[in-house]
Each structure stands twice: as structure tokens, then as C-alpha cells.
């Protein structure tokens, strides 16, 4: 009874402490934000309760803990290693130390030790060399995966398996190594040697554990813990969403869900699961759909949307330009420019704003796909769905067509050629003749690459050098930057070097855009100084995709429509000769899939029938933007916007059904054609 009273007092004091702290934090706000007060008070109060239950459980088991630690010491090593990794991720990702974060760590702790625990239980039940070997293998591989994954996450904010198993080959493995510093690899090797003597196994006792009962307990505990985590993660979000006055907390909670999931994932299980990862497909078995076609109802709806009938594209008789230089900015939303968004300080993007005002642009230009590879696929091949199963060399692309017409094709990439299998994927799929990545630039004498790759200033210097070397040739040059990649954009200046309203804005994104702006300015000033800006050269400034994540992106961009996975990105056309672009309608809706047809038309080249996009210089009755991501098709125009889920059995509108079928059957047609 006395213990219950003491615990009741603890509960009361904990609640009062959390409420008092939150009251002092919010009391100056008028009117007082009661919803926020109760949200944070209960969040941290439940956190305290959860931790107290864990402490009480450990206290109740204190007499057994020493024995279990000795008996299952390798499991303890794995658990300790995971906790260090999890706490690092929580700190690095700036997760709130509230109830759900603590629960995700507890779930992750169990999930990451469970394989080693099962191996230990089997060894103690069947104490032979084979079981001991399997026990050591489970222990050592799990340690390796946790430690290696932690180091890789440190450098990239990504998990190893998400890169390695997207395309399982030696290039993916080299990509892992190329983004890891030498001292980190040395640390990994040293610690892995240390893990060998830490595998201490006591001699099994005469009385073996009840294996069926132990397994049942493990299964029930796993189901209970993970079920609670999943249900509470969804419940917390929906409960928060239902309370007025918690808009910011709702956005934050939505962004935290996938981040906490990374903490809760079993690294060892997820690692091997990813080994069987398949590319996201519109349909898993295209052959089942080979006889299907768009219905008359679908065609009527697509005509109303402006998608059908397909525009007949007539290329220019004479090329308008001899050289096209495309600067593709990493993860830059249209509304990261002050010109489009007053939330961005004017001092952050003055040069980009001047380009927008001076040169032709499209104000409603949308990403057609995310992430980078899919965005490039839309830009270079005018397709919405990137299917790595299809042979790239058989598919028409902007690079292939221009190179056949006598253009030199260059793609300069800031990241490692081994990252995400890009060295194998990009030349094979997109067909650029010259592919230069981080390693190639390093061999050329460029210095200062980070774990990710080279920064904007180096990339633009390399692009200028390439342009200068080809000033009298036909050239298609693409420079893909890196510095605005989430979650922490690079901004190349000290705090004191940035304008006051930029540095005091409080967001890394704004500071990053200041760096983007200054390096773009340097590029064009240097191009002008070297005489590289002339009547026969067209420069294009655009982005690979919008940030497509939460946090600062959701805060800085105000229009809910523009916060979706497919969202507006900048596109600016720059040249001393703007006459060929006189018919460009800056107010129309367009997307990345329209870039390749437009450039081919400008350069006097035929546009393949397979390209989905249209020539932006030829007017159409109903201009639109189209995108695809994660099984959803996105449509935007001046009079409507909607999202169609491709596997939805009963869409609520005919236009959603028609768009989903258009994407799906177009994908099937291409897949079957190229896989014959």
C-alpha cells in the first residue's frame, strides 16, 4: 500500500512539474494557447509514466538481471550499441523527447535485439557448435549492421539498406564506401575487432529454458510492443489533428512519423528485407493488363482535362540555339524564391529574383516526379514513371536525340558516381555520352568535396570550364547540384557573412538559398566575363524536384496545394537571344515532362511519339501540369487540381479514374513494348 501511495505521489508531482514548466514557457502569449499547453503537458507526462514503468519493471527484476546479463551478454552488447545509435539519430534528427519518441526507441531496442535473443535461446536449448556458430553470426552481423548504418546515417541522413539494395551490385557497395570517411572506416574495423572478444557465452545450464514458452513470450511481447507503437503513432496524429489550435503540431507530428519509424525499424531484419526490394511499379504484373485500353468515358474525361488528344509537335526548321546549359538545383521549391514567397527574406535570393523578372520563366511549373532519378527521367525522357526493369538504351531520351544530331552531351553530377547506383543507371538510362561525378571531378583537381559530394561553387566552375572548352561546338550540358538536399542544406557562409534578415530567419533553408543565390550569381557573372553568354547559347535554371518532406519546407511554403509531394519548382530561360522564347506563356501550367519536347522543338529535332509532354511554345486550349509519385497521379491547371490514387477501386470522380487509367495503361504499353 505504501509503495502505491509513493507512486501516486510521483505521478502527481510529475504532472505538476510538466504542467508548471509548460505554463512558464507559454504564459507570455496572449491569448494563452490552451491547446498547445495541454498537448505538450500530456506528451511529456505520458513520457514520464512510460519511463517510470520501465524503471519499475527493471527494479522488480533486479535479482534476475545479473543472471540474465551474464547468460545473454552478447544480446546486451547489441542492445547497448543500438541504444547509442538510436539516441544519436534522435539527437541528429532533432526529434522531440516526448512519449512517442521514447516508445519508438523502446520498440527499436527490442526489434534490433530479437534475432540475437532468439539465437541465444536456441543455443541454450541446443548447446552445440552449430548453434553457437549461428548465435555468433547473428550477433556479429547485427553489430556490423547497426554500427555501419549509424556511420552512414551520420554522413547522409539515410540508412544503408535504402541505398545498397535499391540496386544490389558492386557499384552500390562502392557508393556506401565512397560516402564514408577513411577514419570512420578505420573506426568501424577497430570496433568490429573489439566485438569478437565481447562475444562471451556462458556454459549452458543443466536445466534448459522452456523454449516453446520463451518463444511465445517473445512473439507476444513483439506483437504487443510494435502494435502499440503503430496504433499510438496513428492515434496521436489523428487526435492532434482533431483539436483546433494545433496546426503546427499536426505538421510536426506528420513529419516525425516516418522519422520515428526509422528509429523503431529492426536494422537487421529490414536490411535483409530490402535485399528483395523491387522498384515501385504502377502495376506489379503488367502482362495482365496488355489487352486493356482506355474506355470512351476515360477518353472524354481526359479530353476535358486537356491531356487528350495529344498535341502535334512541329519542330523549328532551323535550331534556335547551338548550346543548352541546364543548371538543376537540388530540392529547390519555387517558393524558396522571395519573388514568389514573401516568407523568404528579400536578401536571400536577390539575384534569382532579378533573373525571374528579366528573363522568360513559367510561374506554375511543377515537378513531374520525385526523387532525383525520377525527376530526371521526366526531364530527359518526358515520362512519369521510372521503370528500371526496362532497357534504357532502347528508349528515346533528350541526350540520345541531341547526340545523334551532333551535340556533345555532358552530365556533371555533384554526388558520388556510386551513390544510389547512378554511374550504372544514368548513362544507361538517359544516354549521356560524358558522365562526370564526384570522383571524376576529384581526379581533375577539384578540391573540397564533402561526404555527399561537391558544393555549388565547384560544380559551377566545372560547368564553366566544360562550356568554355566547347564554346564553338554543339553542346547539351547539365549540371546537377547537391547543396539544398534535406534535411540540412549547406550554406557555405559563416553567420557573420550572411545578411541580418537571412541569418536571423532561423531556418537552414533560407541560409541555404542565400548560398544558392550567390553561387548562381557567380556562375552567370563569370560566364558573361568569359564571353560564354551569346545569342546561340540558352541557359536554363530549374530544379530536380521540390523538397517533398516536412519540417521547414512545410513552414516556409504557405499554400497547402504547393506542399504536396508533387509541387511547383522554378524554371528560368536565360539567353542574349530571347526571340525564340517570345511565345512562352509565363502564367500557364506545365511540368518537367514538357521540358524535353520543348528543347527538341527549339533545337530543330523531331519529338518521339513516346514522349508524354508538349511543346511549351505552342499554345494549347487547356495547359496543365502532370506528376506521379508513390502510386498517386497529380493534376494541376488554372481551374482545377486533384490527386488520383492508382489502385483505388472506386474513385469518387470520373476524372480521377480517367487519370489513373491513363498513367497505368500508358505504363503497361511501354513495359510490354520494351520487354518483348
Describe the structure.
- The chain folds into three domains: 1-60, no CATH class; 65-274, no CATH class; 312-619, Alkaline Phosphatase, subunit A.
- 51% of the residues lie in helices and 8% in strands.
- The protein has 24 helices and eleven strands.
- The protein has helices at 2-26, 34-60, 62-71, 73-92, 99-125, 129-156, 160-164, 170-178, 182-195, 211-241, 247-264, 267-274, 296-305, 350-358, 372-381, 398-404, 422-430, 438-443, 456-469, 500-503, 508-529, 552-556, 595-602, 654-675; strands at residues 323-329, 364-366, 408-413, 434-436, 475-480, 537-543, 571-574, 589-591, 625-629, 632-636, 641-645.
- A six-stranded mixed sheet has the order 4-3-5-1-6-7, with helices on both faces. Strands 9-10-11 form a three-stranded antiparallel sheet, with helices on one face.
- Helix 5 (99-125) packs antiparallel against helix 10 (211-241).
- It is globular, with a radius of gyration of 28 Å.
CATH superfamily of the largest domain: Alkaline Phosphatase, subunit A
Bin the strand percentage: 5-15%
Cα end-to-end separation: 77 Å
The count of helical stretches stands at: 24
Report on the biggest sheet: 6 strands, mixed
The level-1 CATH class of the largest domain: Alpha Beta
Poorly predicted runs: none
Number of domains: 3
Enter the CATH topology name of the largest domain: Alkaline Phosphatase, subunit A
Radius of gyration: 28 Å
User: Kindly state the mean pLDDT as a whole number?
Assistant: 87
Structural class: alpha/beta
Strand order of the largest sheet: 4-3-5-1-6-7
Give the strand tally: 11
Amino acid at each position: 500500500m505504501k509503495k502505491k501511495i509513493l507512486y501516486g505521489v510521483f505521478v502527481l508531482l510529475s504532472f505538476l512539474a510538466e504542467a508548471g514548466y509548460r505554463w512558464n514557457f507559454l504564459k507570455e502569449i496572449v491569448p494563452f494557447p490552451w491547446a498547445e499547453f495541454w498537448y505538450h503537458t500530456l506528451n511529456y507526462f505520458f513520457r514520464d509514466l512510460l519511463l517510470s514503468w520501465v524503471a519499475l519493471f527493471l527494479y522488480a527484476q533486479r535479482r534476475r538481471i545479473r543472471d540474465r546479463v551474464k547468460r545473454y551478454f552478447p544480446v546486451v552488447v547489441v542492445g547497448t550499441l543500438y541504444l547509442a545509435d538510436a539516441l544519436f539519430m534522435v539527437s541528429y534528427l532533432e526529434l522531440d523527447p516526448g512519449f512517442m519518441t521514447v516508445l519508438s526507441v523502446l520498440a527499436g531496442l527490442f526489434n534490433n535485439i530479437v534475432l540475437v535473443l532468439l539465437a541465444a535461446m536456441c543455443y541454450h536449448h541446443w548447446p552445440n557448435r552449430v548453434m553457437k556458430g549461428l548465435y555468433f553470426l547473428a550477433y556479429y552481423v547485427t553489430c556490423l549492421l547497426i554500427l555501419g548504418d549509424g556511420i552512414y546515417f551520420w554522413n547522409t541522413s539515410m540508412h544503408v539498406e535504402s541505398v545498397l539494395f535499391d540496386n544490389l551490385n558492386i557499384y552500390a557497395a562502392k557508393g556506401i564506401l565512397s560516402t564514408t570517411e577513411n577514419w570512420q572506416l578505420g573506426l568501424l574495423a577497430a570496433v568490429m575487432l573489439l566485438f569478437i572478444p565481447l562475444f562471451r557465452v556462458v556454459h549452458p545450464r543443466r536445466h534448459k529454458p522452456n523454449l516453446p514458452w520463451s518463444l511465445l513470450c517473445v512473439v507476444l511481447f513483439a506483437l504487443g510492443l510494435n502494435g502499440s507503437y503503430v496504433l499510438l503513432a496513428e492515434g496521436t496524429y489523428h487526435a492532434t489533428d482533431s483539436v483546433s489550435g494545433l496546426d503546427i503540431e499536426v505538421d510536426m507530428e506528420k513529419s516525425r512519423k516516418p522519422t520515428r519509424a526509422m528509429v523503431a525499424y529492426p536494422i537487421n531484419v529490414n536490411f535483409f528485407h530490402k535485399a528483395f526490394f523491387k522498384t515501385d511499379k504502377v502495376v506489379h504484373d503488367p502482362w495482365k493488363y496488355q489487352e486493356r485500353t482506355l474506355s470512351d468515358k476515360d477518353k472524354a474525361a481526359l479530353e476535358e482535362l486537356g491531356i487528350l488528344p495529344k498535341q502535334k509537335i512541329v519542330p523549328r526548321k532551323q535550331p534556335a540555339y547551338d548550346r543548352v546549359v541546364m543548371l538543376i538545383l537540388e530540392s529547390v521549391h519555387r517558393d524558396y524564391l522571395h519573388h514568389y514567397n514573401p516568407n523568404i527574406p528579400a536578401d536571400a535570393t536577390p539575384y534569382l529574383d532579378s533573373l525571374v523578372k528579366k528573363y522568360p520563366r513559367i510561374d506554375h511549373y511543377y515537378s513531374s516526379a520525385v526523387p532525383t532519378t525520377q525527376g530526371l527521367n521526366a526531364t530527359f525522357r518526358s515520362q512519369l514513371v521510372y521503370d528500371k526493369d526496362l532497357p534504357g538504351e532502347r528508349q528515346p531520351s533528350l541526350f540520345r536525340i541531341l547526340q545523334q544530331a551532333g551535340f556533345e552531351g555532358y552530365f556533371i553530377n555533384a554526388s558520388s558516381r556510386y551513390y544510389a547506383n547512378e554511374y550504372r543507371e544514368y548513362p544507361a538510362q538517359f544516354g549521356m555520352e560524358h558522365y562526370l561525378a564526384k570522383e571524376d571531378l576529384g581526379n581533375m583537381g577539384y578540391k573540397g568535396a564533402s561526404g555527399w559530394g561537391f558544393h555549388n561553387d565547384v560544380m559551377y566552375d566545372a560547368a564553366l570550364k566544360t562550356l568554355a572548352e566547347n564554346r564553338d561546338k554543339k553542346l547539351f550540358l547539365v549540371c546537377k547540384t547537391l547543396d539544398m538536399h534535406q534535411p540540412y542544406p549547406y550554406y557555405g557562409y559563416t553567420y557573420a557573412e550572411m545578411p541580418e534578415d537571412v541569418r536571423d530567419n532561423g531556418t537552414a533553408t533560407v541560409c541555404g538559398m542565400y548560398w544558392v543565390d550567390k553561387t548562381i550569381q557567380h556562375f552567370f557573372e563569370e560566364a558573361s566575363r568569359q564571353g560564354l553568354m551569346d545569342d546561340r547559347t540558352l541557359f536554363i535554371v530549374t530544379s530536380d524536384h521540390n523538397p517533398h518532406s516536412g519540417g521547414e519546407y512545410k513552414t516556409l511554403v504557405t499554400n497547402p496545394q504547393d506542399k504536396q509531394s508533387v509541387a511547383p519548382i522554378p524554371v528560368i530561360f536565360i539567353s542574349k537571344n530571347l526571340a525564340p522564347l517570345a511565345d512562352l506563356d509565363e502564367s500557364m501550367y506545365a511540368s518537367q515532362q514538357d521540358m524535353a519536347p520543348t528543347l527538341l522543338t527549339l533545337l530543330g529535332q523531331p519529338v518521339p511519339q513516346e514522349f508524354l509532354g508538349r511543346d511549351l511554345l505552342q499554345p494549347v486550349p487547356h495547359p496543365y501540369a502532370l506528376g506521379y509519385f508513390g502510386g498517386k497521379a497529380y493534376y494541376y491547371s488554372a481551374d482545377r487540381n486533384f490527386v488520383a490514387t492508382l489502385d483505388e477501386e472506386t474513385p469518387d470522380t470520373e476524372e480521377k479514374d480517367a487519370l489513373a487509367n491513363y498513367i497505368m495503361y500508358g505504363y503497361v504499353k511501354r513495359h510490354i513494348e520494351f520487354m518483348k
